[in-house]
Amino acid sequence: MVTGTARAAAAIAAKDLRRRIRDRSAILVGVVLPFALAGIFSLTLGGADTAAFEATYAIADEDGGDLPAAFADVLRGLDFVTLSEANDAADAERMAEAGEVDAAFVFPEGFSEGTSAGRGGAIVIVTHPGDDVAGLVAESLAGSFASRIDAVALAVAVALPPDEHDPDATARVVAAAQKALAVSEVVADDAASHQIDATTFFAIGMAVFFLFFTVEFGVRGLLEERTEGTLARLLVSPIPPSAVVLGKALASFAVGLVSTTLLVVASTLLLDATWGEPLGVALLVLAGVGTAVAVTALVTTLATTPAQAGSYASIVAVVGGLLGGTFFPISQAPGLLASLRFLSPQGWLMQGFQTLASGDSTSAVLPALAGTLVIGGVCGAVAWIRASRIVAR
Predict the structure, then answer these.
(1) How many other β-carbons are positioned within 10 Å of the β-carbon of residue 343?
(2) SS3 of the chain: helix, strand, coil, percent, to 5
(3) N or C terminus: which one in the chain shows less Cβ crowding within 10 Å?
(4) Using an 8 Å Cβ cutoff, are 234 and 244 in contact?
(5) What is the DSSP letter of 29?
(6) Nearest to residue 212, comparing CAs of 368, 340, 347?
């Protein structure tokens, strides 16, 4: 009995697949449109997340002390800064106005001595009028350096009371401490290794978004065949009703699996997208296709006509895609919106695929895989019951 049901389901699935292939919309919706949109998005927005900030700064050292040299070492340690030298304040201003540098730092004469003695000092910043961002970064760098100098002076003043016999002792300690400013170091992790590029994001997003359009024809075919009268002829033959429902589901699953796999391969070879570990990608694709079939089947069973079923499935695909972040990284959205994405299977799939694409292992996507399968299991069970009732009518 089981073998007969399986053979009947396979025959029905093969018939639906032949019909679907002849209908070129399957190729258009399943492969051409998502691949084309992923390519367009990546070409249009691909440079937005990879454009590196760079700035050219100059230092005019009229002081000759240790602090300007220490600040120059700080700037040389920043990979986005190109450092030049200015002869004096006038030369620094000329370079900034001419656009030779984005900003210039001027350390006036007596700066190091004044800060060590507690008299204070000022780092003068001359910015190029046409580059506000580089100017703001320059102010931030100078402010951070000045704060470290002030912190050293304050710490020494608190820890070392004034000496009446040696009034210059505090100044000498402060000067010695300021020479040690470069001892502390900030080590930045390369965040780019934990992020995905725009091409990969849009390849994933389009594959997940259009998957729910690709598979919606399955159970909808029950309504079409019931309207056309072919469903009654099927049921007259020695075919169990469960074989009809299973065949429709298998056809949808096959189309979704092929189209998604083609998108993964094509975007990798032609768009240079990075999907991550093949095993993790394969598990997510299988879970995603199965869940897409289950969700669209459930929605389709709520309709009474094929046109209504198509509309319902499209609404769920669009709303789920937007909520799941297939067009923009909704995980970065504030508050409740970032959590709501997990109400849709698209949200779990996007989370899983992005985790793999960022370099994590297959084990890291197990929560996303589980979330997808839970939604698919619940929707699939309800859809099976409702689709069986459609066939039995």
Answers:
(1) 14
(2) 70, 5, 25
(3) N
(4) yes
(5) I
(6) 347
Residue 245 tokens, joined: 């429902």
Token pair belonging to 115: 């800060």
- Percent over 70 (pLDDT), the chain: 69
The residues pairing with 58 across neighbouring beta strands, listed in sequence order, are: 84, 104
User: Measured in Å, how far apart are the chain's first and last C-alpha atoms?
Assistant: 22
> Would you say 217 and 295 are in contact if contact means Cβ atoms under 8 Å apart?
no
CB 376 within 8 A of CB 283: no
What is the rounded distance in angstroms from the CA atom of residue 285 to the CA atom of residue 265? 12
If residue 59 lies in a helix (H) or strand (E), which one and from where to where?
Answer: strand 55-61
The answer to whether residue 182 scores a pLDDT higher than 60 is no
Query: Do 148 and 71 contact (CB within 8 A), yes or no?
Result: no
C-alpha to C-alpha distance for 319 and 337, rounded to whole angstroms: 13
Q: In the prediction, which pLDDT does 369 show?
A: 94
Q: Over the stretch 295-337, which tens digit does the pLDDT of each residue have?
A: 988 888 888 787 887 888 888 888 888 888 887 776 655 566 6
Region label for 331, one of left (φ > 0), alpha (ψ between -120 and 50) or beta (otherwise): alpha
- Smallest CA-to-CA distance from 217 within 8, 6, 21, 2 is with 21
Chain-centroid distance, C-alpha 174 = 47
| The two three-digit tokens of residue 122, written as one number | 């000022």
Cβ(249)–Cβ(219) below 8 Å: yes
Q: Write the pLDDT tens digit of every residue in 211-222.
A: 888 887 776 777
Domains delineated in the chain: 7-48+195-392 (no CATH), 55-192 (3.40.1710)
